[in-house]
Amino acid sequence: MDIGWYLTASALIFTIGAGGVLTRRSPLVILLCLELMLNAANLALIAFARMHGNAEGQIFAVIVMVVAACEVTVGLGVIVAMHRRRLPIDVDELRELQG
Amino acid sequence: MAEVLFFLAAIGAVVGAIGVVAVRNPFYSVLALVSHLLCLAALFLLLNAEFVAAAQVVVYAGAVMVLYVFVVAYVGGQDEPLGPRAGSGLRGAAVLFGGALFVELCIATLGSGLKLIDSRGTPIGRGFGAPEQIGELLLTKFLLPFEVASFLLLIAAVGAVVLARRRGGLSAGEEQARYSAMDLLRPASTGTMAESVGSRRPALTKATTPPAEDS
Fold first, then answer.
1. For A24, which DSSP code?
2. Of chain B residues 48-67, which have a CB less than 8 A from chain A?
3. What is the pLDDT of residues B8-47, one digit of tens each?
4. Are B114 and A2 inside 8 Å of each other by CB?
5. Could you say which of B48, B97, B159 has the minimum Cβ distance to residue A74?
6. Which run of H or E residues covers position A30?
7. Is residue A79 part of a domain?
8. Which of B117, B154, B131, B120 is nearest to B49 (CA)?
9. In this structure, is residue A71 part of a structural domain?
10. What string of DSSP letters covers B137-199?
11. CB atoms within 10 A of CB A36
12. CATH of the domain at A45
């Protein structure tokens, strides 16, 4: 397959993720949509790595996966803390950052 | 053969992504993301990135998704009203923005004039994307990002524990369990913070003080 097809699929997945971040209200689903966007970026990185025949893009993808795991850990910790404090799990009602 | 596999995996990935966004229950969103990640791993395999595909399946579709499932089960994956509140006009704006973003991304990547974009890539050797090559690159050329990533993981783990810990007041049962063991072993007034505040329980201080008075 041509590399362009992979890039098109990556752009489509990124677009779906961005639309989800904009429309959904639950922070859990927003984190999932962030994962979608990061994975689309990973796909583009690996497609470009294949295009150039150079594995350094794959290292980049691995580092992106590490950062995504960190972001998920901290984000889920925040959601658990919100649940403990009986705050609504809804980004529209959480306009303030004070406890 | 590769074309058929590509279209199968790409359609699966896109359908999984749509499922993440469009399904009402967060639990099913997580399951849709798992299928999306598996299809994406197949795409990585088609791009000769074996190590990244394996890491994707093991780390993402395995560990991270288990974490998600646990948190959804803990928080309670209640059905939420899908999308923004009625009349806000955000949904139309989101669709518009998404379409514009897709067109822009396609222009940015496909219209970049790169010569190899309409080819199958440069010819590669046998060990391309194998664990040997990735490991060698990570430990020679990219040693600093590798170490920084390990520190980042450590910081994230500590931060998640700090964020999600129980704050402010224990429930009654836990308080008793916490006071019982150490207070009987330790003589009274050893200068703990609980004593200086005066929050130590009267029954326990009475129980521990007599040996101190006898001596």
1. -
2. 48-49, 51-52, 55-56, 59-60, 63-64, 67
3. 999 999 999 999 998 888 889 999 999 999 999 999 999 9
4. no
5. B159
6. helix A27-52
7. yes
8. B131
9. yes
10. HHHTTTHHHHHHHHHHHHHHHHHHHHHHS--S---HHHHHHHHHHHHHHSPS----HHHHHT-
11. 29
12. 1.10.287.3510
Residue whose structure tokens are 């362009």: A4
Is residue A68 one of the residues assigned to a domain?
yes
Residue B82 confidence (pLDDT): 54
Rounded to whole angstroms, the Cα distance separating B171 from B176 reads 9
**Which structure tokens are listed for A59?**
């290292």
Give the separation between CA A3 and CA B60, rounded to whole angstroms: 24
Tally: H helices and E strands in chain A: 3, 0
Asked if A4 and A70 touch (Cβ cutoff 8 Å), the reply is no
pLDDT recorded at residue B167: 66
Hey, what are A53's tokens? 């025949």
Would A46 be classed as within a structural domain?
yes
Contact A69 B59 (CB under 8 A): yes
- Domain extent at residue A32: 3-84
Span A25-54, pLDDT tens digits: 888 899 999 999 999 999 999 999 988 888
Task: Provide the number of structural domains found in chain A.
Answer: 1
